[in-house]
Amino acid sequence: MGLDDDAREYHRRDPPGKLEISTTKPTNTQRDLSLAYSPGVAVPCRDIAEETDRGYEYTAKGNLVGVVSDGSAVLGLGDIGPLASKPVMEGKGVLFKRFADIDVFDLELDTGSLDSFVDRVAAMEPTFGGVNLEDIAAPTCFEAEERLRDRMAVPVFHDDQHGTAIITGAALLNAVDIVDKELADLEVVFSGAGAAATATAKFYTSLGVPADQITMCDIDGVITPQRAAAGDPHEHVSQFATDTDAIGGTDLADAIEGADVFVGLSVGGIVSREMVRSMADDPIVFAMANPDPEIDYEEARAARDDTVVVATGRSDYPNQVNNVLCFPFVFRGALDARARDITEGMKVAAAEALADLTREDVPDAVRRAYGDQPLEFGPEYVIPKPLDERVLFRVAPAVAEAAVADGVARRDLDREAYVRELEDRLGGSREAMRAVLTEAKRDPKRLVLAEGDDETVVRAAHQLVDRGIAEPLLVGDRDRIEATLDGLGFDFTPEIVDPAETDLDPYVELVYERRKRKGVTRREARDLLYENDALASALVAAGDADAMLTGRTHHYPSALRRPLQIVGTADDAEFAAGVYMLAFDDRVVFCADATVNQDPDADVLAEVTGHTADLARRFNVEPRAALLSYSDFGSVDNDGTRKPREAARRLREDPEVDFPVDGEMQADTAVVDDLLTEDYEFAELDAPANVLVFPNLEAGNVAYKLLHRLGGAAVVGPMLVGMAEPVHVLQRGDDAADIVNLAGVAVATAADE
């Protein structure tokens, strides 16, 4: 099927459309229903009647946006009516939820007049925390927004105007820096005089571009004072009317000659190579007509030998201007500040936050999503990508702070606490990791990265320094590491440990002493230390580094070998084990062992349970441990079920074990409250287990991967427990974020020693 047929099937697939309503509170019992509705619901109703701000406390108002349209200017389809616009409005709701966890009611209104439209939207103020106007034709959209902003005490935002303005404003802030120009000196030409173009031109003046240096053109040519006075095309462009004598002509080609910036919000194919060549040195070309830009990306770049910064509305080229970079995050900040309006200062704050984020290293997940597109700050990367989740953490707080500064916020937000709140919206693993990373930042330790000449490891090292988590030592070939640093353009000078230039003598003796009874001679110990993993392990064992990571570029068993041989297990431990933390929306669980011990006996299972419980506490999780099997408390009796049963008995009888533990039990018994507390009321656990100890490696590995892939759990790990020093083995192919998380665990553990 082609795209058209695929889109039809996508939308009609049962249930039709793209949105549904779901409950956020339990509705399983009679008491639940009496709280959700009558008689319990009367209590919050009375409270809200006494104090209206309690509506934000007791209802969904504070996270609910109305997406409202009359269907008069839908995409490039024109005036197709309210019902035909509904798929677009539902899609807008999908983007609100996906990128900022904002709920939406889409409202398609058939009103017949501007007055009726404004009255109906304004009457819904008690329902919504904000209103997003969408796909309303100019100039009606200007007056509708203005009148609704005057009448309503919640933010009203016409995204077609301001979303484009904010994103291109961010791109402009970066582009002028790249081409070494000043905003106050720019000559800017617009093609298009609709809602988006007009709002963008006005926003550029807020950023510092003088209004008299902006020329606007439409299908009839340059908008002159005479045309503006006559209301052609509409009064909102009058401040940008240009005397044609100043530019020597009346059409777009005349206007664009000598211009520093071209902004296209009109139709495709109207700008030629020759027109781009006529622009000033190092021009900026934002050709945003969609799907066909005013000039193709390649055409604009090829027109000149100097720097040409080009942005389009297309996702298959660099620098895509897409409003999803703006509206979810602007509303998130406005809603959370309980703003009465979205001010010019809030828009500027959003643009500046986007511009600043572009200059930072891009996460691996974003790089993978965009394939071969360049994602380093420069002419081909002047605005972030929509799939970069950091946009939420930068733009929303900036908008909320601006709302407070501009006096439109009902609520003041502590930025650090607010960022934590936003992170928690994206999953429980962030909340759990935050405690560990905060602890690591209090006392950053020397962390040796055994694969120091791997680009992803270098990028992770840069992030560790930038975030104050660790002092990285990169083990590897110095020339390769320095070439990687140069290629990434980091202002970052890490400590490099090159085996070829390091005095190995102190470490030779250490390795020899630990391995001589395993057949290793001094000469072989020296040769061994030319391996990155061996040298990194020796650095930790000798106390010259506090913690170690390895394993990104080779398989787990081979990566684990040298740390086990040289660092070894702790004095009070006989066995190491691999633990994964899996974070779901409503709980965090720790799964062991999934990487090390293939067929553990009761001794191993008991020791691994204790190590994993200690690890859980590091994440501020009070452990409740279950030894898992396919049997419940003796329902099956064989060698396999006796091992976890015996391990659980030993732990229960050990006076030094200070956490509840039981088993053997089936997995659902361990994690389902009713099964555990009703069917097995004698069990030591009074709530579902959060430390799950599997009977063998095969079961543990299979289970954690199913939970991750089918259960949607976010995963941190594997974390190696039982080692003499904080050593962790990454999964092959881990990205920089994974490395940073595991580094945080290693450093926090080292801080306790």
Automatic annotation (TrEMBL):
Residues 21-31 have a biased composition (Polar residues). GO terms for molecular function: acyltransferase activity; malic enzyme activity; metal ion binding; NAD binding; oxidoreductase activity, acting on the CH-OH group of donors, NAD or NADP as acceptor. Residues 8-17 have a biased composition (Basic and acidic residues). This is NADP-dependent malic enzyme. Gene3D superfamilies: 3.40.50.10950, Isocitrate/Isopropylmalate dehydrogenase-like, Malic enzyme, N-terminal domain, NAD(P)-binding Rossmann-like Domain. InterPro entries: Aminoacid_DH-like_N_sf, Malate_Decarboxylase, Malic_N_dom, Malic_N_dom_sf, Malic_NAD-bd, Malic_NAD-bd_bact_type, ME_PTA, NAD(P)-bd_dom_sf. Residues 161-404 form the Malic enzyme NAD-binding domain. Keywords: Metal-binding, Multifunctional enzyme, Oxidoreductase. In the C-terminal section; belongs to the phosphate acetyltransferase and butyryltransferase family. Its cofactor is Mn(2+); Mg(2+). Residues 16-149 form the Malic enzyme N-terminal domain. It comes from Halobaculum saliterrae. GO terms for biological process: malate metabolic process. Residues 1-31 are annotated as: Disordered. It comes from the Archaea. SUPFAM superfamilies: Aminoacid dehydrogenase-like, N-terminal domain, Isocitrate/Isopropylmalate dehydrogenase-like, NAD(P)-binding Rossmann-fold domains.
